[in-house]
UniProtKB/TrEMBL annotation, chain A:
Keywords linked to the UniProt accession: Signal
Protein name (record): Sugar ABC transporter substrate-binding protein
Domain of life (superkingdom): Bacteria
Species name: Glycomyces paridis
Signal peptide bounds: 1-25
Family of this protein: Belongs to the bacterial solute-binding protein 1 family.
TrEMBL record, chain B:
Record protein name field: Sugar ABC transporter permease
Entry's Gene Ontology BP terms: transmembrane transport
Taxonomic path: Bacteria, Bacillati, Actinomycetota, Actinomycetes, Glycomycetales
Record's GO cellular component terms: plasma membrane
Subcellular location: Cell membrane
InterPro entries: ABC_transporter_permease (IPR051393), MetI-like (IPR000515), MetI-like_sf (IPR035906)
Major localisation: membrane
KW Nucleotide-binding (keyword) present: no
Key words of the record: Cell membrane, Membrane, Transmembrane, Transmembrane helix, Transport
PANTHER family, sorted: ABC TRANSPORTER PERMEASE PROTEIN, INNER MEMBRANE ABC TRANSPORTER PERMEASE PROTEIN YCJO
Membrane topology classification: Multi-pass membrane protein
Length: 451, 305
C-alpha cells in the first residue's frame, strides 16, 4: 500500500514536472527573438566629462601599468572616477556580456578575441575616425568586423629576431648579414658547426603560441588565416613557404623544440644552445626578468624577409580595448582610452618609465603612429639587452608590418586543428602540404561552417 | 431554537481540527519550500533552458535558429567528441581502480588504533586535496619537464632516457592521472575511513578468534562491508573524471594533440567559442553517459542487505 502510494506520488510529480518543462524552458533570456538582432551601433563621443567608469584589465604587470596612468588621466578629466579592476577576463567577460549584469564600461581584450564579441560592443568607427589614418593598418584590420571597428587599438607587437649576440660573436656569426630566412638557416648551420650540439633556432612547442608565431610569419607576407570576409585562406603558397622553412629547421636539427619560457626553453637559452628567437617584441621580457646567465647578451633586430626586399616584420599578438554596449558609461570610458592612446601625456604615461617598468614598457610599441616615432622614444635603452635602443628597432620594424591581415572570430578554435597539425609536422608526422590540406578541411567543417 | 446553536457548537471544534490538520499537512511542504524554490531556480530551470538551447545555434546574443537535432548529430559524428570521451575513459581506468585500492589500504592503515601519529597522517593525506591546483600544476610542469625536470633526472640515474611526460601523447594522460591521483586520493581515503569506522569491531575480534589472517579479514570482512562506501566513492570519482577540466586546463591545455582533452574540457571549448547550442547538446550527452555509468556502478557495487 505504502509502495503503491509512493509510486502514485512519483507519477504525479513526474507529470507535473513534464507539464512545467515547456513553461520553464520558455522562460529566461529570449533566445529566439529578433528584438536584439545584434546589429551594433556607433558610439558617439560624450558631451559630458563627469561620472564613474569601471575598467577591466587582466591582472599582472599591465594592470599595474594602467593603474599608474589614472593620475595622468584625472589631471585632464578630474571629474571622471576610474574604478580599475583586475579581472580574469577570459573567464568572466562572456558570461557578463550574455547576462548583462554589472557590465564594465571598458575592457582590455586580446585582438584575437575581439571578433567573437562584436554583437555586444560599440562600433567605434565614429570616435576613431579622427585618428584612423594614423593607426597601424594591421591593428585596424584585427578590430574590424563587417565594416565596424570594435576595439580601440592598444599595442603593436612587431615580430623581431632576438639573438644572443655574445654567443654568435664568439662563433663568428655576423647577424647583420642575415637578411632573409635562407640566411637565417645558413647562420644556424654555421653556428651548429661551431658549437656542436647546439639547436640554434627556437621551434615553438605550444600549439597556441606556435599558431600565433605562424601568423607572425604570415603577417610579414601580408596574409593571415582568413580574409576580411572570414573566408579561409590557409592552403596558399605563402603558408606553404613558411611551413617548409619550419620543417627544414626541424629536419636539419637546427631547432630547439620547447614551449615559450618553460624550464627547458630557459635552460637552452641560458646555455647558449638556442641563440635565435624569432618572436614578438614581448620576448624582451625574458632577458629582463627570466634569463639569469645570458641577460645582457641578447639583442633584437628586424626579422629576416621571406624574399629579398620583403617586409622585415609581422605582427604577433596584441590587444585592444573594447566598450560593451551595456556599460553605463562607455562613452566616458572612450575618453579614458582616447587619452591613453592618442594624447601625448597619455601614451607617455603608458609606455614611459614607471614603477613596474623603470625603463619603460618595452614589451610593445604604440599602434598610433605619431606615438611610435623612432625619433621620440617613449622608453629608454634596455640594460638587459646590453643597453640596446629597442625603441628604434621596434618602431622601424612596426612601420613595415603589412595590413590586410584580419583575425577571424574562430581564430582560437583553429588551434585544435592548425596549431596541433603544425606540432605534428614538427614531430615529423606530417608534411607542410598535409598540414595545410588537413587543417583547411577541419577548420572549414568545424569552425567556418558552424558560424 | 436551540438545535442550530447546538449544531454550530459541535461544528466549531471540527473546523478548528480541520485547520490544525491542514497546518500539520502543510508544515513539511512549507519547510522544504525554500529548498524547492532554490532548486527550481538554479537547477531545474537551467536544465530545461539548456535542453532548449541544445536545439538552437544560439551564440549568446541575437536571434537563435532552431536547428533540431543538428548539434547532436554534429557531435555524435565528430571524431573529436568521441576522442574526448575516449580520453576520459582512459583516465578513468588509470585513476579510479588505483584510487579505490590505494584508498582502502591507506584507510585501513589509518584506522589502526595502534598507529602512532594517526592524526598527523590523516592531515598529510588531505593536504594535497586542499592545495590550490594552479600551484600544484606549476610544480608538476617543473617536475616533469623533459630535459630539466627532477623526474627525468632521477630516472637518468638508472640510465633511462628522457621522457616527454607532458609533451607526448603516450605519456601525457598517465602524468595527468598521477596528478589527479595525488591530489584527490586523500579525499577518497577520508570517505573510506568513515565507512571503516562504521564496521563493528566485534566482527574483527571474532575473526581473530577464528584465526583469520589480516589479509583474509581485509578481503572477507572489510571490502564486503565497505561496498556501499566504495560504490559511493566510485560514482563520485566517475563524475569527477568525466567532468575533469581544471587539471588539463592548467597543465597541458588539452594537448599534446588533444590527448588530454577530456569530456569536460571539450565541452568548455564550445562555450569559449560562444557555440552555446553545441555546448548544451554536449552537456546533455555527458549527463546521459555519466548517469548511465553511475547507475551501472551502483548496481554492481550494491551491498547485499
Amino acid at each position: 500500500m505504502q509502495r503503491h502510494l509512493l509510486r502514485r506520488r512519483a507519477l504525479i510529480a513526474s507529470a507535473g514536472l513534464a507539464a512545467a518543462a515547456p513553461a520553464l524552458a520558455a522562460c529566461g533570456p529570449d533566445i529566439a527573438s529578433d528584438d536584439e538582432s545584434g546589429a551594433s551601433e556607433l558610439l558617439k563621443a560624450p558631451d559630458r566629462t563627469k561620472g564613474e567608469i569601471t575598467i577591466w584589465d587582466r591582472s599582472g604587470d599591465l594592470f599595474e601599468v594602467f593603474e599608474g596612468t589614472i593620475a595622468a588621466f584625472n589631471a585632464k578629466y578630474p571629474d571622471i572616477t576610474v574604478n580599475h579592476v583586475a579581472v580574469d577576463i577570459d573567464a568572466k567577460l562572456q558570461n557578463t556580456l550574455i547576462t548583462g549584469a554589472d557590465v564594465p564600461d571598458g575592457v582590455f581584450l586580446d585582438d584575437a578575441k575581439v571578433g567573437g564579441f562584436t554583437d555586444y560592443l560599440w562600433d567605434l568607427g565614429d570616435v576613431l575616425a579622427p585618428y584612423a589614418a594614423d593607426i597601424a593598418q594591421q591593428k585596424l584590420d584585427v578590430n574590424t568586423v563587417a565594416g565596424g571597428v570594435y576595439g580601440v587599438p592598444f599595442d603593436l607587437d612587431p615580430g623581431l629576431l632576438f639573438y644572443n649576440a655574445t654567443a654568435l660573436e664568439a662563433a663568428g656569426i655576423d647577424v647583420d648579414a642575415i637578411a632573409t630566412y635562407d640566411d637565417l638557416l645558413q647562420a644556424a648551420r654555421d653556428y651548429q658547426a661551431a658549437v656542436p650540439g647546439a639547436a640554434p633556432i627556437h621551434l615553438e612547442q605550444s600549439a597556441f603560441l606556435g599558431q600565433l608565431q605562424l601568423e607572425m610569419y604570415a603577417s610579414q607576407l601580408g596574409t593571415s588565416i582568413a580574409d576580411a570576409d572570414g573566408n579561409l585562406r590557409l592552403d596558399t603558397p605563402e603558408f606553404e613557404q613558411i611551413l617548409t622553412f619550419l620543417d627544414t629547421v626541424r629536419a636539419e636539427g637546427l631547432g630547439t623544440r620547447a614551449e615559450y619560457l618553460t624550464p627547458t626553453d630557459i635552460a637552452e637559452l641560458d646555455n647558449g644552445n638556442q641563440v635565435f628567437y624569432p618572436w614578438a617584441i614581448w620576448f624582451s621580457f625574458a632577458p629582463q626578468q627570466v634569463l639569469t646567465e645570458t641577460t645582457g647578451d641578447w639583442r633584437a633586430t628586424q626579422l629576416p624577409a621571406w624574399e629579398t626586399g620583403g617586409a622585415r616584420s609581422g605582427a604577433m599578438g596584441g590587444s585592444s580595448f573594447v566598450l560593451p554596449k551595456d556599460g553605463k558609461n562607455a562613452d566616458l570610458a572612450w575618453l579614458f582610452y582616447e587619452f591613453l592612446m592618442f594624447d601625448p601625456a597619455g601614451y607617455a604615461a603608458v609606455w614611459g618609465p614607471g614603477e613596474v617598468y623603470p625603463e619603460g614598457l618595452a614589451t610593445s610599441i604604440p599602434s598610433y603612429t605619431p606615438a611610435a616615432d623612432p625619433a621620440k622614444p617613449l622608453y629608454s635603452e634596455i640594460t638587459a639587452l646590453g643597453g640596446q635602443d629597442l625603441w628604434t628597432v621596434a618602431t622601424e620594424a612596426g612601420a613595415q608590418i603589412p595590413g590586410g591581415t584580419p583575425t577571424p572570430a574562430w581564430w582560437t578554435g583553429a588551434v585544435d586543428y592548425l596549431g596541433n597539425n603544425v606540432q605534428r609536422m614538427l614531430d615529423g608526422d606530417m608534411t607542410p602540404q598535409e598540414v595545410l590540406a588537413q587543417s583547411s578541411e577541419d577548420i572549414q567543417t568545424n569552425l567556418v561552417d558552424r558560424q | 431554537m436551540t438545535a442550530p446553536t447546538a449544531t454550530a457548537t459541535r461544528r466549531a471544534p471540527r473546523a478548528g481540527r480541520g485547520t490544525a490538520r491542514l497546518r500539520r499537512r502543510a508544515a513539511p511542504y512549507l519547510f522544504v519550500l525554500p529548498f524547492v524554490a532554490i532548486f527550481a531556480a538554479f537547477s531545474v530551470y537551467p536544465l530545461f533552458f539548456t535542453a532548449r538551447l541544445s536545439f538552437t545555434d544560439w551564440r549568446g546574443t541575437g536571434a537563435a535558429t532552431w536547428v533540431g537535432w543538428d548539434n547532436y548529430t554534429y557531435l555524435l559524428t565528430n571524431p573529436a567528441f568521441w576522442s574526448s570521451l575516449g580520453n576520459s575513459a582512459i583516465l578513468w581506468l588509470l585513476i579510479v581502480p588505483v584510487q579505490i585500492v590505494l584508498g582502502i589500504l591507506v584507510a585501513v592503515l589509518l584506522n589502526n588504533a595502534k598507529l602512532r601519529l594517526r592524526g598527523l597522517y590523516r592531515v598529510a593525506f588531505i593536504v594535497p586535496f586542499v592545495t590550490p591546483l594552479v600551484a600544484v600544476a606549476q610544480i608538476w610542469v617543473v617536475l616533469f619537464d623533459q630535459r630539466y625536470g627532477a623526474v627525468n633526472a632521477f630516472l637518468g640515474l638508472f640510465g633511462l632516457p628522457d621522457t616527454g611526460w607532458l609533451t607526448t601523447s603516450a605519456w601525457a594522460k598517465p602524468t595527468l592521472a598521477l596528478l589527479f591521483l595525488w591530489k584527490t586520493t586523500g579525499f577518497i581515503v577520508i570517505i573510506l575511513l568513515s565507512g571503516l569506522q562504521s564496521i563493528n569491531a566485534s566482527i574483527y575480534e571474532a575473526a581473530d578468534l577464528d584465526g583469520a589472517s589480516k589479509a583474509r579479514q581485509l578481503w572477507n570482512i572489510t571490502v564486503p562491508l565497505l561496498r556501499r562506501t566504495i560504490g559511493f566513492a566510485v560514482v563520485l570519482q566517475t563524475l569527477a573524471v568525466f567532468q575533469m577540466f581544471a587539471e588539463p586546463f592548467v597543465v597541458t591545455q588539452g594537448g599534446p594533440y588533444n590527448s588530454t582533452t577530456t569530456a569536460g574540457y571539450y565541452l568548455y571549448n564550445h562555450i569559449t567559442r560562444a557555440d552555446l547550442g553545441t555546448g548544451a547538446a554536449n552537456s546533455f550527452l555527458l549527463v546521459v553517459l555519466v548517469m548511465a555509468l553511475s547507475l551501472l556502478f551502483v548496481r554492481l557495487l550494491r551491498a547485499k542487505d
